[in-house]
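tl;dr need the bound structure. longer version: we got a ligand (zinc ion) that a collaborator sent over and nobodys looked at where it sits. i said id run it. heres the input, straight from their email, havent touched it
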Amino acid sequence: MAAAETDSEVPCARCSDFLHFSAKDTAAKWLEVDNLLKEVYQHLACFVPKIYCLGPNLNPQNEDLLAQLLLQGPLEWYLCGEEPTVGLAKLEQSNQPSQLCGHVFKVGEPTYSCRDCAADPTCVLCMQCFLGSVHKEHRYRMTTSGGGGFCDCGDTEAWKKGPYCQKHEPNISDSSQKDPLANLSEQMITRTRNVFSIILKYAVHMLTWEKEDELPEGLEPPARGDTYYCMLFNDEVHTYEQVIYTLQKAVNCTQKEAVSFATTVDRDGRKSVRFGDFQFCEQAKSVIVRNTSRQTKPLRVQVMHSSVVAHQCFALKALNWLGQIIKSSDALRRILCLVGLQQGPNGENSLVDTLMLCDSKMWKGARNVYHQLFMSSLLMDPKYKKLFAIQFAKNYERLQSDYVKDDHDREFSITDLSVQMFTVPSLARMLITEENLMTTIIQTFVDHLRHRDIQGRFQFERYTAQQAFKFRRVQSLIGDLKYVLISRPTEWSDQLREKFLEGFEAFLELLKCMQGMDPVVRQVGQHIEMEPEWEAAFTLQMKLTHIISMMQEWCANDEKVLIEAYKKCLSALTHCHSGFTDGEQPITLSMCGHSVDTIRYCVSQEKVSIHLPVSRLLAGLHALLSKTEVAYRFPELLPLSELSPPMLIEHPLRCLVLCAQVHAGMWRRNGFSLVNQIYYYHNVKCRVEMFDKDLVMLQAGASMMDPNHFLMIVLSRFELYHIFSSADCRKRYGRENINKDVVQQNNTLIEEMLHLVIMVVGERYIAGVGQVESYDEIKREIIHQLCIRPMAHSELVKALPENENKETGMERVIDHVALFKKPGVTGRGLYKLRPECAKMFNLYFNHYSRADQSKAEEAQRKIKRQNGEDSVLPPPVPPHFCPLFGSLVNILQCDVLLGILGAVLQWAMEPSGGHWSESMLQRVLHLLGMGLVEEQQHLTGSTEDGISFNFTLKISRPGEAPGNTPSILALLETLQNAPHLEVHKDMIRWILKTVANIKTTRECTASASPADSSGHSQEETVRDKDKAERKRKAEMARLRREKIMAQMSEMQRHFINENKDLFQQSLEELDATTSTSLEHSPSTCDSTLVCVGPRRWRASASDRRQVVTCILCQEEQEIRVDGKAMVLAAFVQRSTVMSKNRKRPTYNPDKYDPLFMHPDLSFGTHTGSCGHIMHSHCWQRYFEAVQAKEQRRQQRLRVHTSYDVENGEFLCPLCECLSNTVIPLLPLTKTTCSTEQPDQRQWVNITSQQIKALHAARKKTNAEGVDDADSAEDCHPPDGFRLDHTPKNPYSGTIKEMLTTFGTATYKVGLKVHPNEQDARVPIMCWGSCAYTIQSIERLLVDEEKPLFGSLPCRQNDCLSSLTRFGSACWTASSQAVVHGHFIRLLAALVPDSQVENTPCILDIDMFHMLVSLVLSYPALHCLDSSGMSEDAAQLHLLHLVTIAHIVQILLTSIPEEVRMEQESGGAEREEEESVCLLYNTLRRHLSSGLHEVTSGWHLWHCVKTGILPYLRAAALFFHYLNGAPAPPELHGVGEWEALCGYLCLPSNPLQLYYNNLELLEPLLQGWCSHPGVLQALQSSTALIRFPRESNHLIELPEDYSALINQASSFTCPKSGGDKSRAPTLCLVCGAMLCSQSYCCQTELEGDDVGACTAHTFTCGAGVGIFLRVRESQVLFLAGKTKGCFYAPPYLDDYGETDQGLRRGNPLHLCQERYRKIQKLWRQHSITEEIGHAQEANQTLVGIDWQHL
Ligand SMILES: [Zn+2]
Ligand SMILES: [Zn+2]
Ligand SMILES: [Zn+2]
Ligand SMILES: [Zn+2]
Ligand SMILES: [Zn+2]
Ligand SMILES: [Zn+2]
Ligand SMILES: [Zn+2]
């Protein structure tokens, strides 16, 4: 502050200077001069340093004011030629704004994209436009903006449909092409151009100025002093902490200042940290540099002259000003664009170019300002957007290189604007053709990845940290390429073809550098020493995946392009393969009478790479040739003859073999990096352009080869050739049993090889390979996912490949294949497969992992069994191949395959030995099935095919080997009965049956006779037989099940008998209603049930007897006053759940007097329990064990637990519920009733006398020796009242101990103080907790619409009963005098007592707390009385007295003005109405002013009745638990007034209490009203609490989640001046928005640094908080400083799922049910418990620093 004061004189001195300044005159002068530039510069040179940067602390308000007056003023005058406000208004009026919205997004603002209509996902709308658009009704996606970017509303290229919202709908009359300049006068245009060009030039000059001590020509200040700034710049290398630490050292500031400096540097990119003479600043600079240069490059610091900084400040201001000015008119905007893009007379760079090219040299703040200006000018003007895009493309390479070298995030780089231009299809196309943008981008990218191996392939292996950093930054170029390609051309020009193909070639060059990168060699002997780097290569592959797919789509779009691209790709591949057969002699393979030459190559011995993008691209193009039919229409244009199929398949095959070998465990020594690569190869993110394409390539190659040759090569690469080639391969077990591991390995390889064959023949769901559409492809994917199990929408999305627009295409398909099941209050919505789709299930679906496969198999078999079907899973009917791939089916019937199949079947004859495996056989059977399905299909199709494909014939032939081997069919027939093949029997049977069917069909068609029926009937009888058999089996199974069930229930019964009590308890838990109603069923004769007063219900001895079981030692124990103490695990917590005033200042816990609870219930102490009972000594032993364990654990490892032992917390040993103390269980006290009892007046008199006696006694002890005649006279104690009597404490030692334990705990937690059992407030806190807990449960019952009695769960019931009985006994643990004192003060608030001062007025007392405290403290007085007066009578009198006080309280506070129309009265309650009127008028009399007139008795009575009801209900609960009186059945239903009054021994017109005792009460009433507090409270009606107090609920949340996001996006951090908060978090209790999880809003709380949320919980929720993290869409529960958990938000998308982290972006809507559930947790005080359970279930939650949120 000191600094600011000295400063203030400086501007003041100048004020006089400035006073005579006239903007108008200056502008007029400027109009006259020749060299305007010089004149304006002079003006700036003179004034800027006088306004800006005059001291260490900037004063932005003052500066802005002066700048407006002295600098912008004249400019605006000049520009308008008149009063600027007038001129600009005119401009605005004549403006015809373009239809572009152009709203620039703030960080965290919601943005919307339409998945149906957006050209690509980068096209977004602002909330306002979205709500006014047609897309609201479409499938839209919502995200939060990262800042930057603007609304695309009005851009016709961005939207396929509905480009305009209602607001931006163009007028038809407007011609949008019209030049906006047409509306402007010539002079105006010239003047604007002059001003804009000078100011823009000035700003560009200053922002790109690099000298620290000089200014550009013409701007030198008239006088310059020795004033400098030490300017600190941002970098992304040094951490916050480093900067803060350094600053404290260098400029000697406090930590707080240092934090603020660091925050500003991070936000604005630079900040002056010192002001003074050169020397002074230089010194600071050297310290900073020295301190930060150790490990990294030092922080950038400059010592700059103040005038330089001043001009830079104004330069930013000037750019902002330009941005503002052009808002008023499209014409001005266009002039600015024109000025900005104008090149110098000699072709010098335009101002816009200059800025762009200096981008990486500027600080963050400057960049932000000029980027904003570009966005609001160049990018808003359709004409200049194009010109700007061209300049941008021309500078592209340089800008990207600068960006890669720079260390700022991309959002602060000019390169980030690429998205605004490249995604506009027309611009992108123009830039490709005219600026060769595609090639430029790709080449720039390749140029930046220089690290290559000898073959020119990328090498990431030895990347330094810096190269890795660069690699990350370079990846943004791929994003640009994606933007350019995202919309595919509909029309091709020759030029576009040419440039695209040029780009394609550049792309091939890139892929060539990837082909074969990161090769691996199998490690034998030793494990690899270091895991090789693999992630970089896969990152590149993943990033390129969509580009590769898009390239193919572009090619598919034009025949010529496709043909050319295919040629180029093929030649690239040939180039990659050159030298691939060198050196090695080919070897010859021969089998089954076929032979083929191939190279000698072993995957397990030589180099192999998983990266083959060139091969895969060719595979993709090959499929496209087939799909587009180009292959058939222009075969002559294609180099098909050049194709060498063995060469095509070689590398993909190696890759697949590698996977198989890894699977077989042959590559274990190569470590995890290889496992990871294989995983990603198949993963949904990569597989489309990896695994899938390898398969296509294999199919393409195989389709061009003899199938026998193909299979021999496959066998050879799998290193299985030697097994199947030998003549006696069918006798494998005989020869090859040397090494078990090798056998095992080979078995796996054979399985994998068979699987590969299945896929090559069977996979036809890629358009071009099979005759399918993309629709069929997705459908099949989804079906196979759902065959595993029903899935949520998000799970399905994750399992499907996304295209470049993040679409899976699922929505088109899902309803055809699945049924949706909505979620309940928990869980999520699920899709379940439609039963009819199950027939498409293919066990060997190519995208299943082994785990998926076995899960799916199990699930499908189970379903079939449940449906009573045969559980066989035959291959599904596949779609037809496209002609180009048609020959693949021949693989099924080729000799080599049949040889292989026959061999495996032969092996399977032998049950033992392990030379074959179940999966091997299963695959063989599947292949056989495929052959049959294929044949059936051919038969039903054209006859020609049916003849050429005769699988049944082939498998019926015996093997041709030397020995007479049986045919496959014969083998199957034998295997059918083999006992060791039980599991495969149904498949074998299916095959044989199908073979039979086919044979009949063939015979039928051959004989052409319709003998079909006989076959059919035969089949039918077979089916019938099957059915009967199944039925029999099912019946057997049922009988067996029943027997087992009977046995089990017998055992259960036994068990229950043994553990009776345990079950009793859990049953009670289950069915609270029955148990409680049983307990309360009236057992004694008394017909009317009354819970209080002399007439009350009394428990018989047997009723009182209560036996419980200890959960720890399982022993039974009767609860007795003198017995062993039994305790209930309990949790005491502070609560504000019922608070009506969250703004009450915090009190000093040491001085606070809690005796009177204010009716605002601003905070209370709640006690809850899980209801589990233990011996006190068992509990103590348990707790000590927990403590000891915890100590050991803390020594060993520093982990937290979900509970805080030091604070007395522990988990219930049975249910793990969080607890922090125990409540002792006490029996009902035995009472008798003497008939003769004093009436109310007598009782009050007697009690007053007793009190007087106590007063006197106290005085006597206080003032020992002083003789006081007055008091001696008064202190005549009433009869039977013995002051010297010391009552005997009835309780056993352990009970006494537990009374103290619980009392102290309540005191400690409730007041947040150190435990002190002697403190006078201990009993008050216990009574308070009892009252508060009862009140909160009463509220809960109302909110849940449950009856007052009979609906509480057992645990709450037990808790309330023990809490109340404890309350009545807790006085015995305190000093009697203390309790007397409390009682006296309490009573004095109602019955005046001259000896007590400072009694609160009745409006400041919660009457229920009053009642409870009075009743529970009275026994301390009563025990001195031996006159036979009963405690019951006293309870009733106290109830009556407090009730009257409460009625008065209600009449004073809660009577609203009359509403006439509600005045209906049947006259049924005439008496009540009259009496209440009378009383009300009495009150009005007492309070001459302050109460308004009410004439309607009905109205008053109604208010009283509803106002007092919660009190009466709570009182009923209280006396019920205190005295044990069962409740009348009427109260088990909806609480009835009469029943309630009856139960409480009140007249049904409680006002009678008043009229019956007028003599006593009238003076009291007068006394209450005359308390000065009453009038005060009534006059300041704001703080008045009205009755009934409504239940608190959590704040209302909007239905649409985006409304919340929007609300949060405009929320700024309250501490760092207008900054956006990074984690805006909403308190669901009070609605406060907080800046969470951030340095700026940390505060100190009880000595710890805590975040905004934690701090808020202490004021708003007494330590407990419920928040919604808006950006994350996550509910946060906090308790204390160390506990917290996340909870599912109450917002769901249409698929019944939450979106925690807002990653999916589906529209979210409020689910009331779930929100109510959270609210219920809160109202039940279960938040802490919920956190405990969450933390127990998920240990990672314990480690989170909750206090910093
Ligand atoms: Zn908009
Ligand atoms: Zn709009
Ligand atoms: Zn739409
Ligand atoms: Zn025990
Ligand atoms: Zn428990
Ligand atoms: Zn709050
Ligand atoms: Zn903040």
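gonna send this back to them w/ a short note. DSSP finds 67 helices and 25 strands in the chain.
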